[in-house]
Amino acid sequence: MNVLVSFVQWNPLVSIIVFSFLITLALTLVYRKLTDKKELDELKNKQKELRERLLKCSEKEKEEIQKEMLECSAKSLRLTLKPMLITYIPVLFVFYGLKKLYMDMAKVGNIISWKVTLPIIGDGAGWLLSYIIFSLIFSIILQKILK
Known about the structure:
Layout: H1 2-10, H2 12-34, H3 37-56, H4 59-105, E1 112-118, E2 122-125, H5 127-146
Antiparallel strand pairs: 1-2
């Protein structure tokens, strides 16, 4: 644990970048492993086709198409819900650990600072906002790399 505290105190920005990358990579790999990509792509294509049909149909057909679209949405939700439920509890523990590490042990304030004070956000980003920013960036990059 002292190694982590030293790492965070040495450079909080680098440490949150590393943690964000590792957590985002792990979550991306779990989602990729547990999600049936082929079926999800088929559902997306079907939804796209249904949206196009919806624009060109009569009122009677609209209800039927909307019902099909709702079924597709429910199926895709079921496919993506499984990995989310599996990763939810471990992520909560990781966030609790990061909070303890950055706020209690290393006593790090703002990791990213800006010159102005913004309403609600303040004059910089603490560990959580910094994590969110970097995880969004890494998520986009990893999705492109891993397709």
